[in-house]
Amino acid sequence: MSTLNEQRAFQSAPLRPVRFFSPDVALTRRADGAYLMRSLEPLADYDNRIGDWLDRWAQKAPDRTFLVEQTNSGERTISYSEAHEEALALAEGLLRYELSPDRPLAILGTNSIDHALVMLAALYIGIPIAPIAPAYALQSTDYKKLSHSFRLLTPGLLVIEDGALYRHAMEQSLEPDIPTIALRNPSPKMRTVAGLRGDGSRRDAVRAAAARVGRETIAKYLFTSGSTGMPKAVINTHGMICSNSQMKRQVAPFLADEPPIMVDWAPWNHTAGGNSNLSIILHNGGTLYIDPGKPTPALFGLSLELLKRVSPTLYFNVPRGYELLIPQLEVDRALREHFFRRLKFLWYAAASMQPATWFALERLAVETVGHRILTVAGLGMTETSPIALFGNVHASGPGVVGIPVPGVELKLIPHEHSFEIRYRGPNVTSGYWRDPAATKTAFDEEGFLRSGDLVSFIDMQRPKAGLRFDGRIHEDFKLSSGTKVSAGKLRLDALDALRPLAHEVVVVGADRKDVRILVFPDWEVCAATVGLNHTVKPAELAADKALRAIFQERLAQLAAAGAGSSNRIVAALLVEVPPSSAAGELTEKGTVNSRALQRNRPELLGILFGDRDERVLRIDSQNLES
Q1: What's the half-sphere exposure (Cβ side, CA atoms, 13 Å) at 462?
Q2: What is the structure's pLDDT at 593?
Q3: Domain 476-618 carries which CATH code?
Q4: What's the topology of domain 11-46+245-473?
Q5: Residue 548 phi, psi dihedral angles, 5° rounding
Q6: What is the DSSP string of 569-619?
Q7: Other CB atoms within 10 Å distance of the CB of residue 151
Q8: CB within 8 Å of 207: residues ≥ 6 apart
Q9: Cis amide prior to 101 (ω within 30 degrees)
Q10: Which of the four pLDDT bands, split at 50, 70 and 90, describes residue 319?
């Protein structure tokens, strides 16, 4: 662990020279107490359709590699000209199905070249696509979310990754008359992607359809996480996605200086992977290495194997992914040199990065290449396609989510000690597909989208320093005394206090007399901390007196800093079984769905709020248990 002086030394090291724009902002306080905030940099003109990007790079750099995927027999690559030709051939076949906003193309599968080609073919001719999370089919037994998605969409065609893998889910959730194409292993009733490919005879019809695509044309229906109910289908237009990509290019102009190279796992059914990251590549003529791994202990090894072969120019991950990467960079000099060799910046989303993670990345970069690598976060949502705020050299640091990107206007509504943030701009959705009630409540009387996120100023006198993420309104609850608890902020504080011993906490106490937390430890780190073998079982570690004392001491220090019952954690429970994706306790972004977890595991709350269970850590800021 770095000392404070070492951290200061790393922070004083120069940043790697990168063309990164840092616009000033305008901040206006209104009579009603709300603030309006916007970038002083106007949004430049942007493309009308996503297909423009594919046309452009097929002409300007036809032989440049666009996508690379890992297969059982090695690597498969496709150039821009090959992708362009293949997408237009597939578009010919799609025209036969008479697809439309009311009968879109649904896609169910992981990221792959074939997935991308079908997706681009549809987008090219104005057919809306609806990428659906594979977890709805593979990590569910009742298929409720999958069935709901199909009923809401009424797809005219479904493309699935693997006919054998998804067949049972399709039989249970899909109307039998909907045609289905399998990219691999089709059943007798399924069609093949080869049969979709046209022979060039309908190329004029493809070009005519493409000419009708404009900024208002629906590009995608992207589903929300469904953490508070069934997923909603967010309308994403070509204009939303194209404007948002231009916003990113203006705050990170180096993206246009040389073709970006990314290694990325983020799923295309999610806005971060399918809109932000894929658009960075396609808009700027870059190369995307499709990462078969995920930021989990079981699958991160696949990501490491790819990073050993590919030096990215920019890298995205969730904070948990960086926590898994850092120990590997520490012990593998060759990996470290390869990773930082041409890296221009790092960014993260979905959760806040803890200071220890941040400083470790800075230290490793300085030790390896002599420069710090700019690390930034952003803030947005599926409804903003997704970036609304983004960091820069003046708005950077643990928890900082940046300033509004050009073209986005923020409304900040006072909420306790924070501000609720709302959005308006060309990247903001018009609403939810076939859900007028949800659409109506999503916007306020001035047309700003209600995000439900809370932020605060780093320095209100210097708004250019950016905003800090403070959690979500729906995470807040009241104690039995009526005192309101800002659970999102308290969660971040608890995580900060417990890292690296814990990778997630859930704050609970609604209608109770005090605040308590469920802690999900990193058991390997815990074992190493108290000098035990990593094979020791969680139940044994949870009972280890030395480890419990460390947790108690850290939480006691946090409690001592809290003023009032709403800011003081009085007890904690170390949870042995991690959150389950199949049970809806873990989102695709790797964050815990607190409501689902509490609903699924009421016994944990019974233990935590019980009076005498020895498993509970009692937190006393004055007197610690021995």
Answers
A1: 5
A2: 83
A3: 3.30.300.30
A4: Rossmann fold (3.40.50)
A5: -60, -40
A6: EEEEEE-SSPPPTTTTSB-TTS-B-HHHHHHH-HHHHHHHT-SS-TTEEE-
A7: 12
A8: none
A9: no
A10: confident
